[in-house]
Amino acid sequence: MTERELFYRYLGLPAFGPMALDIVKAEGVYLYDRGGRDYIDMVSGISVSNVGHRHPQVLGAIKQQLDAYLYLNVYGEFIQSPQVKLAEKLCGLLPPSMDSVYFVNSGSEAIEGSLKLAKRFTGRPGMVAFKNAYHGSTHGSMSILGNESMKQAFRPLLPDVSFLEFNNSADLEKIGSQTACVVAETIQAEAGLILPADEFMSRLRERCHETGALLIIDDVQMGFGRTGKFFSFESFGIVPDILVLAKALGAGMPLGAFIAPRNIMDTLAYNPELGHITTFGGHPVSCAAAIAGIDVLLGGQYPQTAEMKGKLIEDMLSTSLESGFISGIRRKGLALGIDLADPSKRKRFLDACLEQGVIIDYYLFRPATFRIAPPLVISLEEINQGMERLLKAMASL
Prior knowledge:
Aspartate Aminotransferase, domain 1
């Protein structure tokens, strides 16, 4: 059997009809299939590859760690240099109150740990999230997922969860004395890149202060320079009580984290002990890759160039906006949501992009809107090449 046949025969798949590209190599912003054809990755593996694929600095850090050790013991038992150094680096980039890092394997697990931490610290049962928000697909994260069609088949889920309208300040009054936490993205990604209205995030922060609820910011997709700031909440003048990170954190390796003030985080360590445990969380190889990835982003000043690169792409799409192929563009930094004027063309457009050698994707809760979020390290020449291919795909329809 061919690998394609084995793929369909043995792998459990999350949906029928995958792209099923047979990729054998990746480098920078390019993916290469078995026939040697190149594809420009304009979605960064869904906001994972902010430093591109196989960045030499990241590979060097991984190889150096491989020569020292791989797995040692369950998380939190041994002092492991990559974990310690990464935690110090992250806290150094954050406000002083955010001084305790708990490493896990993924964004979903980081959300799970954050929900437990908020309930443990506050002693309250209630959780608040927003409609059309996506926070993962484990039972806890799915409980705060703001789309009923994706979770109705898996009920019952966690109780005491309320959903508010994003950008509706009046809805914030529903946060009350029994609310343990409010989980929010600063920019709703899977809703189609929905930006917060003026003062909405600051009003949300204020309401959490008023009620004693913890504000959990999910920065899984929009963190690590994507919005032009290293962390997206920095753009809105707020500081979360708990910050959730993953995706680009690992620079291509699996890694997640939730970060909080020490007095909050410490409540997971007693009554009961081992309030949250993980076997592979903070794997030393992943942490080594993460340190290198952060150094690449900071050293190349890639967060600072995200706005310029995103604006360039937006300007190049303006002709399609004028022609009527697309009906709207939303953007923050190097993250764009582009609405198709005719939703029925979505599948044909995605296929046309693959034919031209450019990879894009659509947003889960707004399938007629496609995402552009290339690696932050993409050059201006590569942007021009990628957009030339994308515009040819549009023209073909």
